[in-house]
Give the backbone structure.
Amino acid sequence: MKRRGSETVTVTRRVSGLHADSTAGTSFDVDGCSVLPDTVDLETQNFEQDTSAITFTVIFPTGTDVRPSDMVTVRGVVYDVEGIPVVLRSAITGNDAGLQVKVGAITG
C-alpha cells in the first residue's frame, strides 16, 4: 500500500443509533490520509446563532474500511461521515487510488 498523505485520521465506529443519539464504539488510526478542506457553507450559516456547517474531504489509503455511520477525528475535531465513501480509481490504469470520504459537522 502506497502512502499518499501525511495526516493521521481516527475512525470511530458507532455501536447504536445514528449521529446525535449514537454511542462511540471501537476506534482505529489510519496513517497516510490526505485532508482537503471544503468551504464553509454560507447558505446554512446562521449568523444570529453563530453556527456553520463545515465539511472536509478525506482521502484514505486504498483498502481502508470507512462506513457511512462512522465518525472521524481530523486534527482533534470529530466529524460525521456524510454519504457513502467512494473508491477512487485511476482512469488510466484502473488501479485503486484511495477511498474518498466526505465528512462534516455543525459548529457553534
